[in-house]
Amino acid sequence: MNETTTTHAATDEAAGDPAADVAGLMQMIAGGAILQTLHAVAELNIADHLADGARTAKEVAEREGSHERSTFRLMRAAASLGVLSYEGSGRFGLTGRGQMLRTDVPGSLRSLVLIQAGESHWQPWSLFPEAVRQGTSQAKKALGADVFDYYARPEKADKAKLFADSMRDLAGMVTQGILAEADTKGLSTAIDVGGGDGHLVLALMEADPALQGQVLDLPHAIEDAIQQAERRGLSDRFSGVPGDFFDEVRNADLYLLKTVLHDWDDERCTTILRNCRSAAGEGGRALVVEMLVDQEIGKPDFATIADVTMLCVTGGIERDLDEFDALFEATCWRRGKTYPVGGGYFAMELEAI
What we know:
52% of the residues lie in helices and 16% in strands. By secondary structure, it is an alpha/beta fold. The chain has two domains: 20-108, Arc Repressor Mutant, subunit A (Orthogonal Bundle), CATH 1.10.10; 170-352, Vaccinia Virus protein VP39 (Rossmann fold), CATH 3.40.50. It has a seven-stranded mixed β-sheet with strand order 6-5-4-7-8-10-9, sandwiched between helices. A three-stranded antiparallel β-sheet has the order 1-3-2. Helix 16 (266-279) links the parallel strand 7 and strand 8. Helix 13 packs parallel to helix 14. The longest helix is centred in the middle third of the chain and has 25 residues, at 157-181. It starts with a helix and ends with a strand. The relative contact order is 0.08.
């Protein structure tokens, strides 16, 4: 094969099938509309209205107080996405995906949809090109505050609760995987650093009756953790600690850092890890739970999409193992056992050195 033939072959391969390329790119372009369709399904409680059986759009609209024809159009679109099923005679039912948009059911992702499609995440996306140019989130420009300060505003308490609910739902995806592998035998105290409602530490406490647990988080965030501990009968072994992990972390045998580091840049992650290491005694341990970016570039990898989401919304970073190891080494932690825990997340067990 001569050079000209080789060049033509490479060009043809790069071009691919034009019709398929157009269709594929159009599907990507529609991604925002797809998310907002799910947003409307969640906001209008469509899955809850169908929980006890198939209904027509008219019946759903009457229950929800929404416009009948628009409700039908929404439900038709949701059926095309596989979220609803069409049962004939104008009646729609729930698929497995639709079940996950119900309120307060195991495995629900309703709160996550409402957060991802709501103003706190959606508005910064309009400024994402500028985030890439400047290398930092434009959330403050879009919302008037960075996303965590936005949730701390008293008038945004409902949004803060929704965000906490979405984090709890995500925690539910990985907790069982962690419980299957993590060993707390011989440990007396675990601190859930930035732990929100304390889902992970409370689960570890239930599995280990000797374990004392704490959640370290901002004052407005720990009330839910205290209430969750009361509901689960763990108040005698649990405490909520108001504080800022950038300033100080208490002494403990085990530090839990679940989906915390990805919210922050390398400098601030170093501060968090150093504060944990400074407080840890000899033999101190940490458990970091995060997505891991695949080091083979070009293959399908949802973590890369999560990464640009972090750049857009929080200014954080999803990292590969080498990047995590660099952070751990710089802060006197050594990574040991690393394993998948579900939902695309991995647990990394650390030992103080």
